[in-house]
Amino acid sequence: MKYLKKSALGAFITVMPGKNTDNAVNGWLVLDKPPGVTSTQSVGRVRRIFNAQKAGHGGTLDPLASGVLPVALGEATKTVPFIMDAPKSYTFTLTWGEDRDTLDAEGEVIATSAVRPLRRDVEVALGRFIGYIDQIPPKYSAVRIDGHRAYDLARAGKPAATKSRTIHIKSLEVTHWAHDAVSLEVQCGKGTYVRSLARDLAHALDARGHVTMLRRLRVGNFEITRSFSLDELERLCYTGSVLESLLPIDAPLDDIPVIGVDAETAGSLKHGRSVGSSDFRSHPDVPSQPERVLAKCGGTAVAICDVSNGLLRPRRVFNL
User: Fold this and answer.
1) How far apart (Å, rounded) are the C-alpha atoms in residues 236 and 114?
2) Cα–Cα distances in angstroms (integers) from residue 206 to residues 97, 105, 159, 313, in the given order
3) Which residue from 33, 91, 109, 178 has the highest number of Cβ atoms inside 10 Å of its Cβ?
4) Catalytic (active site) residue 62
5) How many angstroms separate the first and last alpha carbons of the chain?
C-alpha cells in the first residue's frame, strides 16, 4: 500500500513501504507525459516500471497538457524542491470564440464571442504580457484558499475568488496562425498559469478564448528533447535497458558549485555533522563566498551543504 509523505522542504513523494532497498533506483527521468492522464497517475506508472521505492515530480501538468514532467526516483526525490522554482517554457493553442469555466477544452462554455482578432493585433497585444505582470489563477487550479484546493471548491459548487499574483513572462510569441486559433510559445517563471495567460490575452483583444492544446517544452535544464514516453519506457524495460534513461540525482543542481571531499569528510557529512573550514577552505573547487555547495566523493553525490560561519552544514544527505 502506498502513501504520501511530505519532505522537510515541502515536496510530496510517493513511498512504498516494505520494499527492498538493496538495489534501489535513484535518478531523474524526463517524462513526456501524455494528455488525458494526471501527473500523479503518470508518476505512478513510472514508479512501477522502475520498481522504485520512492517517486516524486517537479511541477504538476494539467490532465489536458502533455510534455516535460521531471520525475525523481529514490534519493533524487531529495532534490525535487530545487526544480520547483525553475523557469519553464510551453507551447499552447488559444482557440477563439468561447470562454470556459476551466479555461480549457474540458470545461463548460460560459461566454461566447464572434470576434476573431487579426494577427497584427495579437502581436501588438503580446507586449502587454512581457515582464512582471499580475495574474489571477484559474478557479480550477491547485491554489489553496483557506486551506482548500481551488479545484476542490469549484467542483463542490463553492468556487472562491483566487487572489492575483505577480509572475514573470520572459518571452511570448506567435508560432502558428489560423482564423479560429493562434499557437504561441511562452517562456515564464514560477507560478504562471498558461490557461490564465490565454484568457487574459483574449480579453485584452475584446475576444473570448480558451486553451485547446498545452505542451510543456522545458523545466529548468530538463528539455523535451531528452524525454521518454511511457510506451518507450515500457519497451526499454522489456529489453533490460530502462536504467539508461535516467539522469543523475544531481541533474537539477547545475547552478550549485561542486566540491570534492575525501571519504572521512563524506562520512562526517552523511552523519549530519558540520565540517570545519580548515577541511575545505583551501580546496580549489570552493568559490570564494558560496552560499551552498554540493559535496561529492569520488564523483558520487554526498550532501547538499549550506556554507556559513566557516562551516559546511549538511542540508540534504544522499544515501548512495
Assistant:
1) 49
2) 11, 20, 25, 55
3) 33
4) yes
5) 25
In total, the chain counts a number of residues equal to 320
Contacts of 62 (CB under 8 A, 6+ apart): 104, 195, 214
The pLDDT confidence band at residue 75, using thresholds 50, 70 and 90, is: very high
Alpha helices (runs of H) in the chain, residue ranges in sequence order:
39-50, 119-126, 150-155, 194-204, 230-239, 263-270
Band (112; pLDDT cuts 50, 70, 90): very high
* 88, β-bridge pairs: 188, 219
Segment 117-141, tens digit of pLDDT? 999 999 999 999 999 999 988 876 5
What is the rounded distance in angstroms from the CA atom of residue 257 to the CA atom of residue 288?
A: 11
The torsion defined by the Cα of 194, 200, 204 and 206, in degrees rounded to 10, comes to 110
Residue with C-alpha cell 527492498? Answer: 20
Q: If 0-12 CB within 10 Å is exposed, 13-18 middle and 19+ buried, where does residue 141 land?
A: buried
> Which residues is 174 bridged to in the sheet?
184
Mind listing the pLDDT tens digit for each residue in 285-306? 555 556 888 999 988 999 999 8
Q: Look up the pTM and report it.
A: 0.85
Residue carrying the nine cell digits 489536458: 64
Enter the C-alpha cell of residue 233.
Answer: 519506457
With residue 311 as reference, give the H or E element that holds it: strand 311-317
Q: Which of 22, 32, 62, 99 is catalytic?
A: 62
The whole-chain average pLDDT of the chain stands at: 85
Q: What pLDDT is attached to residue 147?
A: 61
- Look up residue 58 and give its three cell numbers: 517537479
73, containing H or E segment: strand 66-73
Residue 55 pairs with which residues in a beta bridge?
14, 73
